[in-house]
């Protein structure tokens, strides 16, 4: 705001409280009367922007809900390919970084510049740490060929292709059985129920066993797979893989990817704050950027708090 | 600065915003909301020209029912798609908030600028970037999906430029969001002392309601086109039925934005009409609170009616009934506005200026546009009318006959303020009459075409429809002539127009109390606020050839009249 100084000069005397503040506060933009007005404007603007972020992710959450409603078996099956341990660690990392961010905002407000720098550095480390862990998760899935779209159906190796004998086209991938253990019944095979068919023609009824109950051998195999938890084998070899499983990974990459982009932006702005705080720019009279980035970072954290159970925990 | 009207008119005010700094860079890097508004105006009008040429090409092709040698069916598809996409995303959505809103909003508030001037400039450059993507898509093979980008055509087929234009729409969405954020904060935080919500001009109420929709609906469009780009590029199977996806889901997402977007287009236009009708009939706006709250009501309803675009897409009958019922209720706040405008005119002392001509045209055309929405909201008649020219005519009456006419009316209303010159009223009225007649010829015939079963977007048609198409195309040429005349006399006025007084029409809101054109900082001291629709303290000043507002009496009247 290059004109602010001249305005303070020319109008400082003829009008109430407002313009004198421009000489006193170099950060006060020329079109605001007081630092408080500027701070409140920034804060309101950030909240409104965060509302748009909620709507931005909101559409994806709606899509998740619709796809899950249509193909529940896909989601309960495919979640086993996600690494709950790594996801859990990442959740902790993000929550801790939100804590350090909140402490940092408080430090700026109370003029503890050293503490602010430490907190921002820790938050930055958390953000980068999250991305590093996410990188390992993604690469692991890429190695298993758990990708989006048609690539999901490309066998990892030639040998796999021979064994699996699965056509690349998803519609040709037969559904052997749709089974799901009742979570409340644990390993009790008798409690296994068949899920409501989403597409009646796609379901091949089990050859043996009473209607609606999968044959014991198959149930045992599926239970073992479910309760061992994390699946690591090539998914095309898994006879229980439901059709449309690729959709889970499509939406998984969409949502965690968009969240990852937001973390990446967070790395940028928190790094910028850290730079400013090393230069001693923020203190109790001016901490608006710290406060606003803090709000942003909490929302990014909050989105992950929803993503983690939706993808990793609900089976 | 509130008593600027005492200055002799020929006294050059040192450094108005146009002369404050000179040189191209001082414009391109400006943070001044007025200059950003003017840049938006130029950009939007340039796009309007391109979109208009596309429309004329489409109309000209439709003179013949069969194939024509100079335009293939593919080119025709690209032409109407380009027309729709340009007019919606580059012209109507940014026109009033971006150009007129940016210019007028802070001045009406007595503020020096919008809350975030840098964000404002950034949002303008996002617009430029989005437009550049659209241009690039033309080089990459164009796009022919229709402006609605329906899947699976857009995700699996469609011309080669589909992805670039979708990226452009994504970017334009953010331009719109940032404008909305800026306006919401400016209206909340930069109002001067004394300007309560119910002292605020109705144009600002309308812009506020618009900003709320921009902020809440546009991100959904952003993520939807992002998903469509990913679907098209990687075929991830969310909209593609062959991969288990759901193409109707795209329609839901798209209309969740694009129906509210219709109100992003019309609400600011309604705000302008509230200003024009009150100022040019010199009478206090009738039912201020009703008009103000009806803007908010329209903004709320806008989020609840998107399903009426999908009555024939296989939605459940229950949803159809609900969406139909809620759609009817939009008529209430819209009619509240129209009746209040009419009541304002009643016993007003009406000046039939060009702006007022546009204002009256708006009321007429919007009423037709609104009433023809009813047969489309009725489930049984919509089966017949869906995807026919009836729909085309209906939304052109609302989007063009209302939103765009309001934009042009607003341009005339604030032209003296923006550039400090008066345009030629006679030519203004001639042009307005041509546009009005041409518009009705073009689109009223399309109601008949549609009700007789002519589908929209078709390249070939039955010969029995030819007479209607001839009238329609003839009307579009008359309209084009009207716009051409408008462009000529407005540009002429910039160089040879009479110097404008501060208050040429007799307005009482704050923008008429600073000079024309306004100085760089709008007001050197925070102005005192009266009732912006109380014209009792406004009188004609022969010496200035303009109106003057007796600020003391104006403010005193507002304080005195608080009781009612």
Task: Give me some keywords for this one.
heterodimer, A: 315 residues, mainly alpha, Four Helix Bundle (Hemerythrin (Met), subunit A), 3 domains, 10 helices, elongated, disordered N terminus, B: 564 residues, Cytochrome C Oxidase, Chain A, two-stranded antiparallel ribbon, 18 helices, 65% helix, globular
Question: How far from one another are the termini of chain A?
Answer: 55 Å
Query: In the CATH classification, which architecture of chain B applies?
Result: Up-down Bundle
Give the integer mean of the pLDDT values of chain B: 92
Helix and strand composition category of chain B? mainly alpha
What percentage of the residues of chain B does DSSP assign to strands (E)?
Answer: under 5%
| Quaternary structure type | heterodimer
Number of self-contained structural domains of chain B = 1
Sheet bearing the most strands of chain A, described?
Answer: none
